[in-house]
Design goal:
Blueprint (H helix, E strand, L loop, with lengths): L1 H14 L3 H4 L4 E2 L1 E3 L9 E5 L2 E3 L5 E3 L3 E8 L2 E8 L4 E4 L2 E4 L2 E8 L4 E6 L7 E6 L4 E5 L5 E5 L3 E10 L1
Antiparallel strand pairs: 1-10, 2-8, 3-6, 3-15, 4-5, 4-15, 6-7, 7-8, 9-10, 10-11, 11-12, 12-15, 13-14
Length: 160
């Protein structure tokens, strides 16, 4: 059973990398990008993901994440290897930095935590299907309620 769960989670880790293709249909908290952002605050590359419970591999993702301003609001751009992009708009600020959350209805969810100090690594947390609930606040921002199963470090590639 544990092996089966790890396989399902690995699929969830990788599926989000194709979220640009899903953005218009299944993906919640984001929209499909028409082009790459002209200016970025910081760009991240994704390191291989690990299970939080035991540190075993949860798969790798071939994507980059770019923090930028979109119409005066902070947003996170996901750019996949084929060059597709999604703009993650579901955002809130907490003590540990800026948070973004995106999910596929009825499936996995992904939270991104970006420290206020943009020179520090960020993290991508994976919430497998059935392990979280979306909680909407008064500003209509949806955050996850539950424990993530996997973590991927987002390493700084460049910062402005």
């Amino acid at each position: 059973m544990r092996r089966f769960s790890a396989v399902l989670l690995a699929v969830g880790v990788l599926v989000a990398g194709g979220s640009a293709a899903w953005a218009g249909f299944f993906l919640q908290g984001a929209r499909k990008a028409k082009s790459d952002p002209a200016e970025t605050i910081v760009k991240y590359s994704v390191q291989p993901c690990v299970m939080i419970s035991d540190g075993t591999s949860a798969g790798a993702l071939d994507a980059e994440y770019w923090l930028f301003e979109d119409s005066g609001r902070l947003a996170l751009y996901e750019r996949t290897a084929p060059g597709d992009g999604s703009i993650i708009e579901n955002h809130w600020l907490a003590e540990d930095g800026d948070h973004f959350f995106v999910w596929v209805r009825g499936s996995h969810g992904w939270e991104y935590v970006i420290p206020e100090d943009r020179s520090q690594e960020a993290v991508r947390l994976v919430y497998p299907k059935g392990t979280y609930k979306g909680k909407k606040d008064e500003q209509k921002v949806t955050s996850p309620v539950g424990d993530p199963a996997a973590k991927c470090v987002l390493e700084v590639k460049s910062a402005s």
